Amino acid sequence: MNARSQTFELSVEGRQVEEVVASIFHTLLFHRTFGKFHYKQEGSYSIGTVGMQDVDCDFVDTTYVICSEELDRHIKAEIMAFRDALRGGDGNGSGQISLEFFQRRRARWPFPAECIPWEVWTVKIECISLANEHERQLIREKVGEILAEKVLYVAEAMNRHQYTPKMPNQSEVDLVFDTSFPDVQPYLFKISHHTTGPQQTSVSNQMRKFLKDTLAL
Amino acid sequence: MASTASRLTVQDRKDLEKFTKYLVYKCIQVIVQGRLGEKMQTLSSPFSSSSDWFNLDINDIPEVLNETKKVFAGLVGGSLNVGQNICIEISLHTVEGESMILETWWMTLTDTIDPSARVSYTVYNRMGTLLKSLICATRVVPAYRLSRKQGSETFVVCYRIYTGEPQFHLGVGHQKTRVGSVPTPTGTIVLSVAYRTKMLMSPQTSLHREMPFELKDDHFMEGSPRKKQHEMPIPCMLKERHRRLSGDEGLIFAADPPDPCECVEHCCCGQNSFSNGDLANRVRYGAFAPHQEHPTWSEDDSSDDVPFMKLLVQGDRLNANDDQRSGSQPMTTESKPTAPNTNCDTTDDYVMIQLKTPFAGTEGASELNGFYRECQGAPPLSMLSDKSSVQDTLNCITQQLAEFETHAKDFDDFVNSIKVAADA
């Protein structure tokens, strides 16, 4: 099965990187997060409630929604690592960060569970430097408008109701959802970044990953 | 479609109707609450309560819910049928009586069906996804930023719920986009939005002849005069006006199914459509702003023709304030239509509008504001305490001139006598 893949490309000022990526990733995760599952008996479960919190950006004219501070802390750590790599002179001022949703499939003993991505969102960032405050104000508004477009695009994509993993029974919940958060339960996801050149997509990387994982034994 | 629908069990059909109804309720809550002007914060909880529809913590504002129910009850069969629309209009109203519609959200049911969707699981989850999309979308369209800056001293944001065709009085260049859709076995619920992109009020569209100004999107501008205190959302102005005039203080919301003529009147009419008393009695509360009476200028025709007439009106009102403080009889609305305003703090009366000064630095507007404030803060002149109108004053000056004309000879004689004295 091929994972769906979407890429956004943005040119932003260095200090905007964190908020730009956070606003896109949180919008995605908000759609891809459920309340905590509580299994009563096999095949029957209740779901907790997802809350929401508005976050105003400091360097972009926009507001985004997060559903869990715990989840926010988790993804912020990843985004900050990307930002530091991007601004720290490691890269050439451009890079990309991906949010990949995957499910695990149990393999035969002694192989570890296989990770199969089903949706990948990539944000390509080009850092630009600005000469004065006027330009800064312009880009602050412009990036806000671009992010609005992206958020509406995400909403449209989420409402196509394409493939998402089947709701698991109790024994398989960890193969589909990340159950490590106390208040919410997002689909399994991982964030990876790259700042030196184009990154190969996870889809085309599957065979190599599989071999690597096998050898890692 | 009939055959698919007939395959649904009675329970499925009932559930679907119920889910659809609650989806509409929650969508309207999300839209209205997204325009309250304050940040939303609800916590995720591992356990849900029975009121948490679609596994989302969206609190209901009872008044908005009642209003929604009323509109929903007006639908044929009490549910959303194919081809029907439920619309939510968000509009901006300045304290000076100008208004413009910012956005129109509408939900409709199309005849595209998804026969395979299970009502109790798939449809329910899709509805949750649509709500999440709506929550995100309400934050990124331009009206959100404006609503965060509203206050009873500048402008307020109002809502109106109606059924029927959505109306798009949103100016040139407005955008339309589909927020999301929920395919169900009986049709697809589609939620869309049309929003204004040009936030410019011009004399052609305003009720008053005012200098056009741009409501600039300085997102979360610090130190603005607004108060971001959430009180209670209010419905659209015309209805509010009717309520005020009918004296029904207990009813806060009144948005019946729409009357298109009324809407046209609301958007396009000039001030002549209102009687003076009508306007004077029209006290609007901030949609999403503090429930505090704000001033309305007395709608005197002369105010449009005479520059700074409003400052004179202000002077009148200051006097009225003094009268009240000194313990005189409370004024009645019959004798003085502007009486409700006299309780306001004078500093609240001034309307802070950010003027765009095209060829000046940013200090230009603040200087002008400062000048106006000084004019406003000046002690009332005793000559302003008499109630003579400008017309009277002008007549008086004309009389005086005429009088001087008739005595011109006396003056000439006097001047000649001085000259003679000097020559001598």
UniProtKB/TrEMBL annotation, chain A:
One of its GO terms (cellular component) is Atg1/ULK1 kinase complex. Pfam families: ATG101. Keywords: Autophagy. GO terms for molecular function: protein kinase binding. Belongs to the ATG101 family. PANTHER family: AUTOPHAGY-RELATED PROTEIN 101 (PTHR13292:SF0). This is Autophagy-related protein 101. It comes from Capitella teleta. The lineage of its organism: Eukaryota, Metazoa, Spiralia, Lophotrochozoa, Annelida.
Automatic annotation (TrEMBL), chain B:
One of its GO terms (biological process) is protein localization to phagophore assembly site. Its main location: other. Residues 98-198 form the Autophagy-related protein 13 N-terminal domain. Residues 326-345 have a biased composition (Polar residues). Belongs to the ATG13 family. Metazoan subfamily. It comes from Capitella teleta. GO terms for cellular component: Atg1/ULK1 kinase complex; cytosol; phagophore assembly site. Keywords: Autophagy. This is Autophagy-related protein 13. Residues 318-345 are annotated as: Disordered. The keyword Kinase does not apply. InterPro entries: ATG13 (IPR040182), Atg13_N (IPR018731), HORMA_dom_sf (IPR036570). It is found in: Preautophagosomal structure.
